[in-house]
Amino acid sequence: MADQSTYPMLSEKSWWTLRDKFKASIPANLSTTFVKSLLSLSSDASANNNIIVPMKRLGLIDDNNKPTTLANDWRIDNKYQATCDAIVKAVYPRELLDLLPDKTVDRSIAKNWFMSKGVGLKTADGMVSLFVLLKRGEVKEKQDRPSGTAKKSQQKTKALKTNNNTPKAKELGSSAMASSVPETKSYEKMSNRPNLHIDLQIHISPQSTSEQIETIFASMAKHLYGVNNS
User: Fold this and answer.
1) What are phi and psi of 224, to 5 degrees?
2) pTM of the model as a whole
3) Which end of the chain has fewer beta carbons closer than 10 Å to its terminal beta carbon, N or C?
4) For residue 1, is it within any domain?
């Protein structure tokens, strides 16, 4: 398409809502009443300016507001990217596509380019958003869906949390904790001798007889260790 001073704007929310509606059933006519009801818009003018005119510029409806063949391809997932590519080539000039050839768009460059065509900042932002959406060419379901690895990880985490909350898991956890604590023996199961450390200094007279010495040690054994030799 030849270079233009203005380019279509369509919010991402409206884009996906309309596509979901087309996926369910292609409307016979994209009338202002249809659009207002679907997107909760306040007036015919809003429906026409914000939705119907951009849809025409994108080639998704004709001059009579009837969906085109391109609109049928647009709603089919495996044709979505090719449809977006076709719209980009039809709507935007070669200059812009040469400036931003990749699927990932540098928004600042794109905004500068749109503003160079005489539009304001807010309008340029709206044009950039739709341009980025079309260049990306990915259906919303694929953008939002977690990867297989992340999904499996989420399921595993959920399963672990569920299993850990079961009565059996709690019982096993308690048993494991109990088994990790060393058993404390009761005082009764231990030796009946007191666990004492005593330093004794015994002074025995050299004049003491062997019987007297035996009596001294017997008394110590009896009173300190509970040994009764009688």
Assistant:
1) -95, -35
2) 0.62
3) C
4) no
